[in-house]
Amino acid sequence: MARQKKKNETMHQEAKVLSADERRAQGKALRDAVPREAQGGWKPPRKRRDPIEILVESNKGRLPDLIPIRFGRMSQSPFAFYRGGAAIMAADLAGTPNSGLRVQACGDAHLMNFGGFATPERQTIFDINDLDETLPAPWEWDLKRLVASIVIAARHLQLSETEAAHAATTTARAYRERMADYSAMRALDVWYDRITAEQVLAAIPSEKDRARAAKRLQKARESSTAEAVSAKLAEYDGSTPRIKDIPPLIVHPSAEDAPGVATQYREALAMYRESLPEHVRVLFDRFRFCDLAMKVVGVGSVGTRCSVGLFMAADNDPLFLQVKEARASVLEPYAGRSLHKNHGQRVVAGQKLMQAASDMFLGWAEGRNGVHFYVRQLRDVKISAIIEGWDVELLQTYGRFCAWALARAHARSGDAALMAGYMGSNATFDEAICEFAVEYADQNKRDYRDFINAIREGRIEATVESA
Q1: Exposed, middle or buried, 194 (CB in 10 Å: 0-12/13-18/19+)?
Q2: DSSP 115
Q3: Angle (deg, nearest 10), helices 20-29 and 416-423
Q4: What is the pLDDT of residues 89-129, one digit of tens each?
Q5: What's the gap between Cα 374 and its chain centre?
Q6: Residue 420: in which H helix or E strand, if any?
Q7: CA separation (Å) from 105 to 24, 175, 326?
């Protein structure tokens, strides 16, 4: 009897819901094992892997003809190199201290992977907009990649080292303060929270920059209409609509590149349809498949299989979908394998978990060649930052919004109170992350120099595209 009573008490204790203050205290206790100061600084380990070797290894399975274009885009600057070098930093981050708390991580949270896009309700929001590498992992990895990107961007803009460090500290502080806010919010309110385009525009310090951003947003909205996309990408071959060939960036695939072309991708489309929510299938069934062409995108994604699909519900009613290859996350060797057998499903699940709202046509499937992929609408008011000409004030403002979006994404899957308790309420954590970011930006510069030397020596091939 006494034994059963003790067992019941134990079960009751295990089932007890801890308050936010109790969880913050638990987070604070994690500093005993990993002090916040330990998050600072970066020194390459003695047996650090050759970054060129990592990049070459990351090309496995990519389309060989496009690999030189990928390296050509990365060769433009240390900032472009950093954008394409997620695999290098993932290997480096794996050896850095972390609190032991995991979240659904972005995996490639540099500042250019944040931006605006339209929700199914047609509201434009600001959020993480590239989640190809998403996987459960330590939350610090995302934050360190973001803040390091702020320092590298500041140097790209030829800002002073003091300004770069200040922008980095501002970004880290914004993440910490937003996480503290989320730790005090109800769970549903965290999930309801979103950052609107209007909030971003209102925060831009300069009236000139605010007007420029508003103009870009309006242009993105106008160019994302069905009529605008169709006029740019589609043409008629007799009475049949098809996607225009715009070589080398948009071309129709051969049967070798896309085995499903012979059957009009029937099997893959059926699998994709099944991945959609039931109510979206009703809408998708209104459209018939017309054409598909391959498209070169991004920096780090160059060489992976990316296509544009054209579907029609009526003569003047097109739907353009982007079909993007999903490979194993760069975090997988260090954070563990995905629970999803299909990497497209991994991306879709992670995207829905991290974003405040996701594209209604977001789905996944597998091609006849065994390639995993995910699908979303093409463009749909997608707008990314163009940092050229930014001053430190604008960079800081943008960094704060990226930090806000990242903190909200992490708070959805992780325990905000534990993370907030670990970071605390003073600047100790911010300064440590800034120190790491500055020293890792130095590492990125060294790696970039080695990369350029490898191109000059003929170890790797790079093709610089004409403007």
Answers
A1: middle
A2: E
A3: 50
A4: 999 999 999 999 999 999 999 999 999 999 988 899 999 99
A5: 14
A6: helix 416-423
A7: 21, 14, 16
